[in-house]
Amino acid sequence: MRVGESRGWAYFALLSTATLWASAFPAIRVALPEYGPSNLAVARLVVASIALLLAAPVLGIRRPGVRDLPLIGAGAVATAGYQFLLNWGEVHASSGTASLMVATAPIYTAILAAFLLRERVTRRRAAGMAIAFLGTAVIAWAQGGATIDLTALVLLGAAIAQGAYMAVSKPLTARYRGPEVACYTIWGATLMLIPLSPNAFTAMRDASWSATTAVLLLGVGASAIAYMTWGYAVAKLDASLASMALYLVPAIAIAVAYVWLGERPGAIELLGGAVIMAGVLMAMTRPRKT
């Protein structure tokens, strides 16, 4: 595969990841009333683990090396933390507000990648990040702004956890394929959270069909598939560059929430989405040589 084609597929994988992760925010809102934060985190990861376990023979998943276990463990901790913190935050915040907070994750990815992976953040990429972040601020203002309270801090913690996972997954993709990194991470996170929520399986048994559908989307789509497409993309691109695609999530989340939940975006939300798109395109493209 030529370099241009490989990069094109990486961008397609990023768009797929952003779309699946965006759909998670309204899906969480649907499932939370019946599951609660901790039960939902476990249910989502259990579904994802089963899906990946069934696909493992086809995907050719290998055993990880002993030297990589600390990084895998760090990724699993970050994933488990992200799932729980995001769910808790969405108990008290709308899916749009939550998606906006999590959209700051690339900032923490870039910071960690610069220190841990020695990745260089160019001026163009930094400018694109700033423009995209401005777009998220426009959407936040349209939704009434945000107060700095416990909910905001919890969602900020979710964003930091997401950014940390993206940074630590980069070295793993140099030695393992995207599906393998996804399996290691999700299986590890599942084992960590199950003991903390023993009632999760009872909640899964008693849940309504709408909540069950939301959990299936979260587990299979937003976790199993999205983590594999993310692993593929980050293997082809810098971690900080790949994480710029997260700025697309709030705009996509608004569209998904409109179709699924009937939440209507206003003109300012659409303007913010356009600004986000402009920033992402600036960060993910290179200037033409003259």
UniProtKB/TrEMBL annotation:
EamA domain span: 9-140, 152-284
A Pfam family reported for this protein in Swiss-Prot or TrEMBL: EamA
Coiled-coil regions listed in the entry: none
Lineage of the species this protein comes from: Bacteria, Bacillati, Actinomycetota, Actinomycetes, Pseudonocardiales
Transmembrane found in the keyword field: yes
Keywords, ordered alphabetically: Membrane, Transmembrane, Transmembrane helix
InterPro entries reported in the protein's UniProt record: Alkyne_AA_exporter, EamA_dom, EmrE-like
Organism this protein belongs to: Longimycelium tulufanense
Source taxon at top rank: Bacteria
Transmembrane segments: 42-61, 68-86, 98-117, 126-144, 150-169, 181-201, 207-229, 241-261, 267-285
Membrane listed as a keyword: yes
Signal peptide bounds: none
Protein name (record): Membrane protein
Recorded family membership: Belongs to the EamA transporter family.
GO-annotated cellular components: membrane
